[in-house]
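Bug #77: duplicate submission created two jobs. Keeping one. Sequence:
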Amino acid sequence: MNVKARAELEGITPYALGQSIEEIKELYGITTVRKLSDNENVYGTSPKVKEAIMQASANLAFYPDGMTSGIVEKLSVHYQLDPKHFMVSNGSEEIIRLLTRAYIDKSDEAVMAEVTFPRYKTNVVIEGGRAVTVPMIDGRHDLKKMQEAIINNTKMVFVCNPNNPTGTIVAKQELFEFIDNVPSNVLIIMDEAYFEYADSEEYLDTMPLLKQYKNLVILRTFSKIYGLASLRVGYGVMHEDIAKELHKVRDVFNVNQLAQAAAMAAIEDQAFVQDCSAKNSAERDFLKEKFKELEIDSFPSQSNFLFAFTNRPVIKTLTENGVLVRQMQLPGYKEAFRITLGSREDHEFILHIVSQLFHERAV
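Kept job's structure:
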């Protein structure tokens, strides 16, 4: 092949995707697979969403609303913020891509945690920038070191809170002081895809800070607790000047019509959101404690998943029994994995097969 791709792509690998459910069934000869690898909402989506999609399907021959005005209006009412602050996207990852496209030049830097959502780094590098990664402390962002990493060439800093894949949050006062100390010419990108799952008093609500900090960008999504992962709807909340720049580089009709209808219906059903959050908190506490009894530790999570680690073999047995988790790397541990929180029945099944495995190896 004589046509060469851009040099920036040489060190980039595609986002890792696991085996499909059908592949797992065929490989291990099983009929049931519990997909707990991608942080999806195991409780599905609001019944109101399905009704909205059916109604919207009558208009498939027409282009969607290119400005996603219906979702923007719903978000504006929900957060009591002017519509000019919102931008709706094809998943919140699109906002990340648009931010780097609009603001990262060659030689620019972006600061982020060493273990966090990998698409920050990928998108920065694609635009010719340099991703500066800062080691974490017990699965948490080291905001002090991240602050120290900001130099004249720094254009943006990413904070994932709760963090993917560790599930941890940074303390409220610590995060506020960090935001206050970041120079105004550096974008602060708060990725809060899992914020609806956070129930700690130490979790900082960043929305009230938008008026004071014009360099603050907040990312949220309908993919997680709203259960719309397959439809790809996210949104960013930011100063109107930043939104204007992003609109210059986004694709036309970036959110399809069915996805828009679904998102508008989803945000109306906050009872569903609260129910999912409550169930998630209960199952998070349950599984974390039961894992600990089996010598499987985990970081303190405020999300809908646990980052678990142990020196005992787990992942292969889980997969063979139809439980899909995301394998991770953690120095000093043979087995590290991220597991999406499931139902109580899911967790009891997992605990049974893991207990059985450990008992067999002990005999």
